[in-house]
Fold:
Amino acid sequence: MKYKNLIFDLDGTLWDSRATIIGIWNEVLQKHQLIERDLKPEDMDPYMGLLAKDIIKDIVPGISDLQAEEVLAEIVSHENKVLGTLGGILYEGVEDTLKYLAQDYRLFIVSNCQDGYIESFLAHYQFGSLFADIESHGRTQKTKAENIKLIMERNHMSIEDSIYIGDTQTDYSAASANGLPFIFCEYGFGNLENPLYEPSILKFEDLQKYLTAIAK
Structure:
């Protein structure tokens, strides 16, 4: 089968932004006296791919909805500016592979991140021309499954010619909710409940080989 549309998750799939954003989280949370010790990049591992409001409520138990909203607004504002300037850690092979794939496929990103986060990623690496469309929870306030459906409807994509690529069970579940096949990125942050039943890649550049093989 030859796919036409490749929909990507962002964190844990295309890049690792933890080293950049952790300083922002520490700065804002310490400013509001919400943490006793600085968070380390690895402390964010369980939260990658989750909604920010759920992350902060787990990091700061008992925080009110209002304070969580105010603190997150401050964090998000800083993150988008800093990430656009400093970027994160782009996984090996991502740039060359995306440029190669963009010649034969339409590329998309759907992420649970805030509005402006994907845009910062695209701006820093100058990838904007490679992607046909993007969508985020921050812009729509919808679930990842709903945003995948939204981007498919907006771009006239069919289940038969589209596939989702991500690194968490949440990604798999969102793809499955839309009837989409899924490719699991083993190098990312998450795990699958039944990894043996899904195709997987050990490094990003393996995606090119996989898609070429199944298109023959």
